Amino acid sequence: MEEHIPRASIHAGKDRKSFPVQVSNEAERRGWDEKRYQLKNAEKEKNNHYNFSRKHLNFEITKGGKIEPLGSNPVPLYIRLQQRYEELGFKPYKDANNPEQVSQNTPNCLVDIIFSGDRDVMKRLAFGDQELDTSDPNADQSHIKLMDPIREWAVDTYKFACRKWGEENVIGFSVHCDETNIHAHVLTVPVEQVKKHGRIGSVYVSNDNPDVKLTTKEWKALPKDERDNYTKHKATKEKVARVSFAKVWGETKKEKSEYLYQLHTDYHDEVGYKYGLERGIPYEELSDEEKRERKHKDKVTLEAERQAKLAIEDAKRQKAEIEAETAVIQHQKDEAQKELKTAQSGFLAKIFQLGKFKKEEAEKIKESYEAGAKETIDGIIKASGLTWKGGKPTAESIGQNFRMTWDSNKNLAKELKDKDSLISEKDAEINELNVKVSDLTEEIDGLKFRLTLIDEDAVQKLRNSRIAEKTRADKAERDLGNLHSAYEDLSLQWNALWKEPEYNEAAWKVKERKEREARIAAEAKREAEVRIKRHNGVLDKFISEGRAVLCAFALTTRTSFNQKEASSIYYGIMASASKHNHSLFNSGGIEASVKDFLSGLSWKDCSDFREECVCSWTRLFAAKGVDFSEAAISNFCAFVDHMSCSAETYVSLGGSNGCADQLTNWDGTQKQGLGAPAKKKGLSL
Asked: How far is CA 331 from the centre of its chain?
C-alpha cells in the first residue's frame, strides 16, 4: 500500500471580471446567521459543509500581518476592492444593454486564490488534539478553541502573498475554520508595472542646474538667447501600475500553467515545508483515479464515495487481519508437520534398533505373539526393504522384537496421533480463512466497481448539466438576437417618423406646451412661496409693532392703554394667534396667543413689579377687554391675505395722522374694513 504524503494545496479560482456583493459577504460571513448556514448546507451541488457553531473561530489578516476577527473591518470587501481600482484608475467596461452589469469583453481584474493543505494536517494546526468531526454540519462545536499554529500558518501565507503580488494588492485574506477543511481565501488584484502609452518626446535640461527640465513646448517658448543654455536629451517612458491579469498570470494557457507550477514550488520552499506539507503533485503527473478525484462532485456523489471507501477500508482491514491469522496458523501447522516428521523418523529408528530394550519387555512380546504373527511381520519387513542379520528370522524372534518396540514407544505413537489431529484442525481453519479472504476480495472488487460507477454517474450528470446550460445559453442568445432585430426595426421607424414635417411640427408644439406648463408651474410655486413669506412678514409686522407699543407703555406710569396702544396690542395678539394657529374663540387659545405675544418682549429698564403688572393687564385686556368676534378675525385674515398679494404693499399701524384706529397703505391712503377693536363693557384696568 502506497504511503500517504501530506501536501499543500493552492487553488487559483477562475479569473473574474467582477466581484458580486453576495460573494463578498460570503468571504467575510457578513449577515450570515444560522439559517444562512442551513441553506448553504442544503446546496447538494456543493461538496462542502458549514458549521455555524464554529463561525466564531474564523479570522482575517489585515495590513501589517495583524490578526482580526473575520468581518471586523467596517468597510466591506467589495468596497475595498473598488477603492483599489480607483487608486489604479481602472474602470471596468459596462454592458450597454444593462448598465449595472460588467461587459463580457472587460479585462480580467481580480483573482480569488485558496491556500490549504492535507485535511489532517490543517485540522491538527487549527484544533490540536481536540476531538471533532469537521464534516458534520449539525454538531455543536462551540466549545472548540483555535490553536496558535493555524494563526502562524495564516500569517506566513499572508506574507508570502504580499511578497508575490504586493500588500497593497492583497485586498482580503479570510481564514475559514467553519468548513470541512480549513483554508484561506486571498482576494488579489493583478497589477503590473508597465510603461506609459504614447510617443517618447524630448526633454531639455539646463546646463546650469540639471534639476531644471523643460518640455519641447516650454523650451520653444523661451527667448532665443536663452535656448542655448539647455541641452536636448531623449526622454524615457515612466512606468505606471496597471491592472493586467495576462501580464501577471500569463497570456497563454501554457504560460499560466508554468506560473501556477512555479507558484506551488515557491509556496512549498517558503511556507509549506515549515508545517510538514510537501509540494502538491502537478496535475499532469496524477493517475487517472487521482485526476477523477480532483473533479468537481456534488455532495450526494461525495457521500456515496465516502461510504464506499469506508467499506473498502473496513474490508481490507478484515482481510489483512484474517491473512495475518492464517499466516500464524500456517506457521503452527508447519511446525507441527516438522515435529511429526521428526517423531516418525525416531519411531522407525527405534523399531529397527534391536537389542537395546529390557529383558522383561522381550518376554512380554514373546507371551503376546503367536506364530501366526509371522505373515504380518513379513509384510512389514518386505515393505521396509530391510533384512535380518544372522539368518532368516523366525516368527517368534520377529514378534518378540516388534512387541518390544511397540510397547516401549506407545507414548510416541499417541503423540504422533495428536500431531496428525492438530494438523487436520489447522488445515480446516486455513481453508475456512481462505474462503473468508476470497469473499472479502470479491466484496472489495464489487465496491471498487460501484465506486467507478458512481464516478461515471457524476461525470454523466455534469455532462448533462453542461448540455442543459448550453441549450439555455443558445436560447438566450437567439432571444437576444431577436430583441436586437426588433430594436433596430423600431429605431428605423422612429428615425423615419422624425423625418416627417407634420410629426416634427406636432412634436415641437408639444415640447413648447410642456415647457410653458413647466414655467407656469415653477412661477406659481415661486409666487406661492413668496406669498407665504410676505404673509408671515405682515404678521411679524403686526406682532413687532404691538410689542414695541407694549414695551413703551411699560416705561410709563399709566395703568391703562390709550386707544392707539389698545389697537396695536389687539392686532399684535391677533397676528400671534394667526401665526401659531391658535383659536381666539376660547380662553385656552387666547391665553396661548398672549403667551406667544409676550414671549418676545424686551423688558429693559423696567422693574420686575412693573413687568408683572403689564403682563397681567395684557392678559386681562385680551380676555375681558376686547371682543375677538368671528367677523373681526375674518376681516383681519382677509386684510393680511390682501396685503400678501403684492410685494409693494406696506402696512402701518400709526396711520397718516397718527390715529390708533387707522391702518394705512404706503402712500398714506386708509385701508378699509379694519377699525378700532370692539371693547367689552364694564372693563377698568
From this structure: 61
Separation of alpha carbons 456 and 450, rounded Å: 10
- The amino acid present at 587, given as its one-letter code, is S
What are the angstrom distances between the C-alpha of 429 and each of 322, 340, 424? 11, 19, 9
Q: Is the pLDDT of residue 660 over 60?
A: no
Cα–Cα distance measured from residue 295 to residue 306, given in angstroms and rounded to the nearest whole number? 15
Place of cell 423696567: 606
Burial 609-640 (b: 16+ CB within 10 A, else e): eeeeebbebbbebbeebbebeeebbeebeebb
Q: What is the pLDDT of residues 127-150, one digit of tens each?
A: 999 998 888 888 899 999 999 999
**Per-residue pLDDT tens for 403-456?**
555 555 555 556 666 766 777 777 777 777 777 777 777 777 777 777 666 655
N- to C-terminal Cα separation, the chain = 119
Number of other CB atoms surrounding residue 512 within 10 Å:
10
| Of the candidates 645, 637, 640, 635, the residue with the CA atom closest to the CA atom of residue 673 | 635
CA distance 579 to 637: 11
C-alpha cell at 245: 491579469
d(CA 166, CA 192): 10
The SS3 of residue 510 is helix
Compute the distance between CA of residue 415 and CA of residue 339 in angstroms, rounded to an integer: 10
**Helix segments in 352-409, DSSP class H:** 359-368, 374-384, 395-408
Residue type, 286: L
**Do residues 50 and 138 make contact, with C-beta atoms less than 8 angstroms apart?**
no
Cell of 149: 499554529
pLDDT at 61: 95
**Distance separating alpha carbons of residues 175 and 182, to the nearest angstrom:** 7
Q: Of 227, 57, 31, which is closest to residue 132 (Cα–Cα)?
A: 57
135, 178 contact by CB (below 8 A): no
Q: For Cα atoms 177, 260, 282, give the angle at the middle one, nearest 5 degrees.
A: 85
- Are 350 and 409 in contact by the 8 Å Cβ rule? The answer is yes
Considering the chain, what percentage of its residues have pLDDT values greater than 70? Answer: 71
Q: What residues contact 541, with CB distance under 8 A and at least 6 apart?
A: 651
Could you tell me the pLDDT band of residue 524, with boundaries at 50, 70 and 90?
confident
Q: How far apart are CA 414 and CA 313, in angstroms?
A: 46
Classified as helix, coil or strand, 186 is: strand
The span from the CA of 105 to the CA of 355, in Å, is 112
245 neighbors 107 (Cβ within 8 angstroms)? yes
C-alpha cell at 377: 511381520
Tens digit of each residue's pLDDT (9 = 90 or more) over 149-187: 999 999 999 999 999 999 999 999 999 999 989 999 999
Alpha-carbon gap, residue 241 to 358, rounded angstroms: 114
Instruction: Name the residue with cell 412634436.
Output: 507
Taking CA atoms, 307 is separated from 314, 341, 438, in Å, by 11, 50, 22
Q: How far apart are CA 89 and CA 555, in angstroms?
A: 73
What contacts 184, CB < 8 A, 6 or more positions away? 114, 115, 116, 154, 157, 158, 173, 174, 175, 176
